[in-house]
Amino acid sequence: MTEPAACGADDRIPLALRLYHWALAASFVGAWALESAWREAHEWLGYTLAGLLLWRLLYGLSGPQALRFATFIVGPRRVWRYAVDLRHGRAALRTGYNPLAGWAIAGQMLLLGAVAFSGHLLTTDAFWGDETLQSAHALLVDGMWTMIGLHLGGVTLASLRSRRVLPLAMLSGRRYPH
């Protein structure tokens, strides 16, 4: 059984959202990779990441109805019910974000926001060289890598369930049930 789409009348992921996704990923990975080698680029990629998060927050509050946070971030009972159904192999395939994915998006955005904010604080006079904040920033980055692993695991599971290569949707824009 397939639940209704949560992506719009033409069942496509808008180009703006796909570009956001890849730019956010590139900003995070680039900032991480350049952290010790090229500090200025690391900082600018962090600010780029923060700007992208701000754009997604605004888009999630005022963009197309099907892509607003209120459409796919549901209450804990629905999330729990979906998780139990998924565990027992009876979760419906759906073309939009599933209840777990909605909360994963929110969690990733909050964590990335904390990474960007703590990174910014480290550039200020008040926190320059603060070892506690540096450790917290590094811990947040490690947490984000864990979230990325969970994200990729979820996409892999959804791809196996739907028998589709779901990451292609972030290239082509065409959504498939998952």
From TrEMBL:
SUPFAM superfamilies: Transmembrane di-heme cytochromes. GO terms for cellular component: plasma membrane. It is a multi-pass membrane protein. This is Putative Cytochrome b561 family protein. One of its GO terms (molecular function) is heme binding. It comes from mine drainage metagenome. InterPro entries: Cyt_b561_bac/Ni-Hgenase, Di-haem_cyt_TM, Hydrogenase_cytochrome. Keywords: Cell membrane, Membrane, Transmembrane, Transmembrane helix. The chain crosses the membrane at residues 19-38, 100-123, 143-160. GO terms for biological process: respiratory electron transport chain. The keyword Methyltransferase does not apply. It is found in: Cell membrane. The lineage of its organism: unclassified sequences, metagenomes, ecological metagenomes.
